[in-house]
């Protein structure tokens, strides 16, 4: 039987002291312990990108990352993008305005990957956008509107 341990995770700028099992994934802790349900559980195998969060500003699959591995790092979820007053981040607004959401299940992961891409490259080409989002699967939109949304926010 695994022994639980207390860890501190910095999520969206706030420290959270929590009790975890060593084998608990970051996804489990974010959703079930801390209530950040914007991060979605898709394939649970690291293939779909629905669980993408930023860890030290890098897209990270929360389903295949142990929570204990995130100690001492900055974690940002989709909830951390919007303003404290609920104002949408420009990326979120662009996704809405360009119809880049349908069922919305992949959207948090797509948005987080887009944030990381635009932080590294504020004016990506279409090929760079495709590469930046390559770890995220969408079964509804066909990607054209997602790419359009990323282009629109990049053009700013």
Overall domain count: 2
Note the total helix count. Answer: 5
User: What best-fitting shape do the alpha-carbon axes yield?
Assistant: globular
Largest sheet: 5 strands, mixed
In CATH terms, the superfamily of the largest domain is Beta-grasp domain
Q: CATH topology of the largest domain, anyone?
A: Ubiquitin-like (UB roll)
The ordered H/E elements are EEHEEEHHHH
Radius of gyration: 16 Å
Terminus-to-terminus distance: 52 Å
Kindly name the structural category. Answer: alpha+beta
Overall average pLDDT: 95
The poorly predicted ranges are none
Report on the architecture of this protein.
This protein is an alpha+beta fold. It has two domains: 5-79, Ubiquitin-like (UB roll) (Roll), CATH 3.10.20.30; 90-155, DNA polymerase, domain 1, CATH 1.10.150. Helices cover 31% and strands 16% of the residues. It has five helices and five strands. It has helices at 26-33, 90-97, 107-120, 126-132, 144-155, and strands spanning 5-11, 14-20, 52-55, 58-61, 74-76. Strands 2-1-5-3-4 form a five-stranded mixed β-sheet, with helices on both faces. Strand 3 and strand 4 (58-61) form a beta hairpin. The longest helix has 14 residues, at 107-120. It is globular, with a radius of gyration of 16 Å. The model has no long low-confidence stretch (mean pLDDT 95).
């Amino acid at each position: 039987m695994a022994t639980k341990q207390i860890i501190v995770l910095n999520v969206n700028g706030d420290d959270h002291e929590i009790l975890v099992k060593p084998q608990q994934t970051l996804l489990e802790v974010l959703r079930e312990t801390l209530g950040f349900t914007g991060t979605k559980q898709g394939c649970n195998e690291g293939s779909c990108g629905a669980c993408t969060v930023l860890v030290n500003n890098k897209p990270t699959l929360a389903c295949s990352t142990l929570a204990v591995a995130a100690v001492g790092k900055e974690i940002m979820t989709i909830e951390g993008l919007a303003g404290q007053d609920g104002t949408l981040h420009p990326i979120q607004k662009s996704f809405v305005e360009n119809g880049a959401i349908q069922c919305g299940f992949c959207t948090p992961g797509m948005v987080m990957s887009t944030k990381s891409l635009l932080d590294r490259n504020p004016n990506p080409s279409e090929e760079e956008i495709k590469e930046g989002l390559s770890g995220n699967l969408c079964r509804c939109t066909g990607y054209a509107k997602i790419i359009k949304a990323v282009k629109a926010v990049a053009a700013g």
